[in-house]
Sequence to fold (122 residues):
Amino acid sequence: MNKPITPRAILPAIVGMHLPPVELTIDAHYQSAVDCGIRAAQAFLNEDEAVSLHKHLPACLHHYLQLVRQACILLDPVEAVWQQHEQASRDAFCAGYLGRIQQELRLMRPPPSRQRHAAAMH
Fold:
């Protein structure tokens, strides 16, 4: 018996850049969490003051999860609803955040030469 294929969330390409969009291993239902993670990462990248990544990500994730929890409680006060979505929301937010950081790092790296890439394969 085959499992039905569920749509996946997408890490969009950065506008004007050569990187393609990336299909994530996150259910498309959590695309908004991915998008929030992307926006938080962009805020980190745009920050002028020295902010450490290991402090920024947990702070943004905590704030995001508080908002999601409040929304879940408004929709259904049963704690099980929040528990059902908490880990998936956390994973999706982090996938968006770290995916955006990874895109930025790839843009900073020069494209590999074909010769060097071929040598690494052997």
Notes: The two ends are 39 Å apart (CA to CA). The chain has a mean pLDDT of 83.
